[in-house]
Specification:
Layout: E1 2-4, E2 7-9, H1 19-25, H2 36-44, H3 48-58, H4 61-66, H5 70-98, H6 104-120, E3 128-129, H7 132-145, H8 163-187, H9 199-222, H10 234-244, H11 251-273, H12 284-299, H13 301-304, H14 325-357, H15 363-379, E4 386-387, H16 389-397, H17 404-420, H18 429-438, H19 441-444, H20 449-456, H21 458-474, H22 476-496, E5 501-505, E6 512-514, E7 527-531, H23 541-552, H24 556-579, H25 591-594, E8 625-629, H26 638-652, E9 657-661, H27 665-673, E10 686-687, H28 690-718, E11 722-729, E12 736-743
Parallel strand pairs: 7-8, 8-9, 9-10
Antiparallel strand pairs: 1-2, 3-4, 5-6, 5-7, 11-12
Helix pairs in contact: 5-6, 5-7, 5-16, 5-17, 5-18, 6-15, 6-17, 7-8, 7-14, 8-14, 8-15, 9-10, 9-18, 9-21, 9-22, 11-12, 11-18, 14-15, 20-21, 21-22
Pfam families: STAS (PF01740), Sulfate_transp (PF00916)
Keywords: Membrane, Transmembrane, Transmembrane helix
Protein name: Chloride anion exchanger-like
């Protein structure tokens, strides 16, 4: 590199390479790819090193606990654990309402899953516990199997249980099955499945879930009795019931909810604004819960104003119990999307903080950790657990460095469950509903993404809106499926209809850009450079050929047919001139014959297809070379190979030189293995770079012009000129008309010529 002025320049002096000449000058390393049997053998072969690595991978705690800085990190973890514990307790109580369960089970969810994630999780910052979307999805299954009105599902495990116990059984059975799905996906290394849930899809889905959550909590805020509903359009039916019974609103519940929402909302703004100055965010949810409990108990809201309260809180923990296999059978279709959503949310949040604090997380290990956590928690009657962004933000911003903070937050939930649960008995459920609604701010604010997505990426906007609307109207499980379908359709649309372009050279460089994007581009006369930024496969090969024809300005197959017709007309006229016979109608020529290469071996002249007699009309071909840029083509399938081969032969047969540049080495290997090359399509048309191909083409064109000038000079001095006269019959007047055209004699060449 050399610095010239303010720019650094470089000069490369090397030969022009084709792929063939490059392979001759540089020896390629021969690599052997492992067979499936070889990979299986490596997988089952064990040694001490692999066992150690497996232990470190399955128990990430071993890795970070060895480097734990006790004096430096422990104070921050303690403060963070206490702060996060307060938030986790309040959210557990509130989100249990979404799962249609008593609040005590929210405290179970804040405790048990965290115990196992502490050992198996790779994230050091996420707070594992209840998440509103998962709680709502579990609640939908609970309501379907144990509805508010009518008989529960025909499940033998329900015998002898009251409605609350039946709902608890359904909730922890669904959670256990969710954990089985997550654990299985982690063991089989399918953590990559989360990549199919794009940020746009997750944003639209969680926004729809926030709308569902908001509607479901209105009955608590208003203090009216509305039975929960599930299924398609359940949100519309729920709103209808709410507006029908809105005249029975409990004013005490409504006022208390509004006050709590306003206060919590304002304090959260203060926390966000002064996060750098506040060592610990103000635990406003816990403060308002304590105040609400005291006021409700002191003024006896339950008896005086008819306010619904939490009621009896079970002290301590119940023994572990097995889930119901019958519930597994009834809820398998709902448990799988719950498992996917839980992992997707947890992994995405964990990835944010892993990048921020410069450590790595393992998606498959996270699946294992969440699976074990949910299975362990479900054994003790907790419901679906993942993480919540707001709770994780508290844990990280208040000084948490490791999952020691998470363990302390779980201990906080245990203390409340064992010793302090009775203090929460007078807590109004409207307070919990208000806390749920105010925590939806982040998810509801995602509606602001719609204008941005519409301006920047319309297909992504369609995914967002489609997922959100489907999830709101059809339910979260069907909405997620619809969102995935819409997302896959946009991927198909992008690959099936890519933005093809014609490239030109930026003068003085070896750079080639879309000729529509820059001024003063250099485009050699008679040359087209075509680029397709997509894989070529069965679904877009026809689109590729259409765009290629549009780029060059003519259909090569049509040109080939016209030329073959004209050539046979010339041959027939020549034959009839020799025999001095009357010209009759031309014989029928099949379509297959017209698509074969033109063969002028029997004609002692070279046909200039751009200078023909007026009575022979063949469309002009204004290019002599076509360069296809395959730098963005990642794969070709068999159907595309056949279509590509046909398209290339159509151009070659009308004497357009075809070059393919920057083709991936694995695609070239596939072309060889599929017998792509023959006497027309040769390996010499492949070049490593676009600049190599263009320079080679210009060199060949220069040499061809030189040879043409020498032949013309020699022919003029020999005095040999052949004049060919074409005679055609006028059908109406039965007269002969003649027109002569001079052609230069050339040596008979192999194959066919223009």
């Amino acid at each position: 590199p050399q610095r010239v002025g303010v720019w650094t320049q470089y000069v490369v002096n090397r030969p022009i390479y084709s792929e063939d000449s490059f392979a001759e000058d540089f020896e390629k390393v021969s690599r052997k790819h492992k067979t499936i049997l070889g990979h299986l053998k490596d997988y089952v072969t064990w040694d001490s090193k692999r066992a150690k690595n497996l232990a470190l991978r399955l128990l990430p705690i071993i890795g970070w606990l060895r480097t734990y800085r006790l004096r430096e990190w422990l104070p921050g973890d303690v403060v963070s654990g206490i702060s996060t514990g307060l938030v986790s307790i309040m959210q557990g109580l509130a989100f249990s309402l979404l799962a249609e369960l008593p609040p005590i089970y929210g405290l179970y969810t804040a405790f048990f899953p965290m115990l196992t994630y502490f050992f198996f999780g790779t994230s050091r910052h996420i707070s594992v516990g209840s998440f509103p979307v998962l709680s709502l999805m579990v609640g939908a299954v609970v309501l379907r199997l144990v509805p508010n009105e009518g008989d529960p599902a025909n499940i033998s495990a329900f015998q002898g249980l009251n409605k609350t116990e039946q709902r608890v059984l359904v909730a922890y059975s669904v959670t256990f099955l969710m954990g089985i799905f997550q654990l299985a996906m982690g063991i089989f290394q399918v953590g990559f499945i989360v990549v199919y849930l794009s940020d746009t899809l997750v944003s639209g889905f969680t926004t729809a879930a926030a709308v569902h959550i908001l509607v479901s909590q209105l009955k608590f805020v208003l203090g009216i009795d509305v039975k929960g509903m599930t299924g398609v359009f359940s949100i519309i039916r729920t709103l209808e019931k709410i507006f029908t019974g809105i005249t029975g609103t409990n004013i005490c519940d409504l006022v208390m909810s509004i006050v709590i929402m306003v206060v919590v909302f304002l304090v959260k703004i203060v926390n966000d604004k002064y996060i750098a100055k506040l060592k610990v965010p103000i635990p406003i949810e816990a403060i308002m819960t304590v105040i609400a409990c005291g006021v409700s108990y002191g003024f006896d809201f339950q008896n005086k104003f008819g306010v619904q309260v939490v009621g009896r809180m079970v002290s301590g923990y119940e023994p572990p119990s097995a889930p119901s296999v019958e519930v597994f059978q009834e809820s398998a279709l709902e448990a799988f999307p719950i498992a996917i959503v839980g992992f997707a949310v947890g992994f995405s949040v964990a990835k944010v903080y892993a990048i921020k604090h410069d450590y790595t997380i393992d998606g498959n290990q996270e699946l294992i950790a969440f699976g074990i956590s949910n299975m362990f928690g479900a054994s003790f009657r907790s419901f679906a657990a993942s993480t919540a962004l707001s709770r994780t933000a508290v844990q990280e911003s208040s000084g948490g460095k490791t999952q020691v903070a998470g363990l302390i937050s779980a201990m906080m939930a245990m203390i409340v469950t064992v010793a302090l649960g009775f203090l929460l008995q007078p807590l109004p459920t409207s307070v919990l509903g208000a806390l749920v609604i105010v925590n939806l701010k982040g998810m509801l604010m995602q509606f602001r993404e719609i204008p941005y997505l519409w301006r920047k990426d319309k297909p992504d906007c369609v995914v967002w809106v489609g997922t959100c609307l489907a999830s709101i109207l059809l339910g979260l499980d069907l909405g997620l499926a619809v969102g995935l379908g819409v997302e896959l359709l946009t991927v198909v649309f992008r690959t099936q209809f890519p933005r093809c372009s014609i490239l030109a050279n930026i003068p003085g460089t070896d750079l080639y850009k879309d000729r529509k994007d820059y001024l003063h581009m250099y485009e050699p006369k008679g040359v087209k450079i075509f680029r397709i930024p997509s894989p070529i496969f069965f679904a877009n090969i026809d689109f590729f050929r259409e765009k290629l024809v549009e780029a060059v300005g003519f259909n090569p197959l049509r040109i080939l047919r016209k030329r073959n017709k004209a050539l046979r007309k010339i041959q027939k006229s020549q034959q009839k001139q020799k025999e001095d016979l009357a010209i009759t109608n031309m014989a029928y020529v099949s379509t297959e014959m017209l698509q074969m290469p033109t063969d002028n071996k029997e004609i002692p002249f070279q046909v200039d297809w751009n200078e023909l007699p007026a009575n022979i009309i063949v469309p002009r071909v204004d290019i002599h070379s076509l360069i296809l840029d395959f730098s963005a083509v990642s794969f070709l399938d068999i159907s595309a190979l056949k279509g590509l081969k046909m398209a290339l032969k159509e151009f070659i047969r009308i004497d357009v030189n075809v070059y393919i540049v920057s083709c991936d080495v694995y695609i070239q290997e596939k072309l060889h293995s599929c017998m792509f090359f023959d006497n027309e399509i040769k390996t010499s048309m492949f070049f490593p770079t676009l600049h190599d191909a263009l320079l080679d083409m210009l060199e060949k064109t220069r040499n061809d012009r030189g040879r043409s000038q020498v032949k013309s000079y020699s022919t003029a001095h020999s005095g040999i000129v052949f004049v060919f006269v074409l005679f055609f019959v006028n059908d109406s007047a039965n007269l002969f008309r003649g027109r002569s055209t001079a052609y230069r004699k050339t040596n008979r060449m192999e194959g066919y010529h223009q």
